[in-house]
TrEMBL record:
UniProt-listed Pfam families: LptC (PF06835)
Name the record gives this protein: LPS export ABC transporter periplasmic protein LptC
Organism for this UniProt entry: Gemmobacter fulvus
Domain of life: Bacteria
InterPro entries: LipoPS_assembly_LptC-rel (IPR010664)
Length: 195
């Protein structure tokens, strides 16, 4: 028997014993886990979720009767009575069939399922693909058909310049079905700023 064969024979016995010794020290030296330490955090979260149900990072996507797509995301949403709900830090996008897009951001939102409307509140920012950037306090957005309407004054900028108005609407053009327009009314002020 040569030296190589003897070495291999010893290693066949020594290496498994060494591995067994290393594994046993891992279990002997390892810290013990206290299962009670994690429970208070879980109980607080579960109790709070039962008391105040909510969803984090909810998302909604739908198509209106006239073919527009509406997507909606929020940081948090809570259910309310009769299918209604509320959400905070809301981002929405309305894409109408004519290719126009409107991005909406609001501090809070309330779903009014009976009226198929979404009420955006808490400072609403409106940015359209046609170049308008507007701000209003509240805006009602249709969930079943394309359209939006501010409940009060609007101000911002657009391609023609600075705009102030008592109200604003995004609606289908009556003379051109399938085309959507941005309408300002109620004491409209335009400060024209040529480019």
């Amino acid at each position: 028997m040569d030296g190589h064969s003897r070495l291999v024979g010893w290693l066949k016995v020594a290496l498994p014993l060494l591995a067994l010794a290393i594994l046993s020290t891992l279990f002997l030296v390892a810290r013990t886990i206290d299962p009670e330490a994690a429970i208070p955090y879980a109980e607080v979260d579960i109790a709070e979720r039962i008391r105040e149900p909510r969803m984090t990072d909810p998302a909604y996507a739908g198509v209106t009767k006239d073919g527009a797509t509406l997507t909606l995301t929020a940081d948090e949403a809570r259910p309310e009575a009769e299918g209604d709900g509320s959400a905070v830090k809301v981002h929405a996008q309305l894409a109408t069939p004519d290719g126009a897009r409107t991005a909406l951001t609001a501090g809070t939102a309330r779903v009014m399922s009976r009226d198929s409307k979404l009420l955006l509140e808490g400072g609403v920012l409106v940015a359209t693909s046609t170049g308008y950037e507007l701000r209003t306090d509240t805006l009602t957005l249709g969930l079943d058909r394309s359209g939006a309407e501010s409940a009060g004054p609007v101000e911002g900028f657009g391609p023609p310049g600075q705009i102030r108005a008592g109200a604003m609407q995004i609606r289908q053009a009556p003379e051109s079905p399938g085309t959507y327009v941005l309408v300002f009314n109620n004491r409209v002020t335009l400060i024209y700023q040529p480019h």
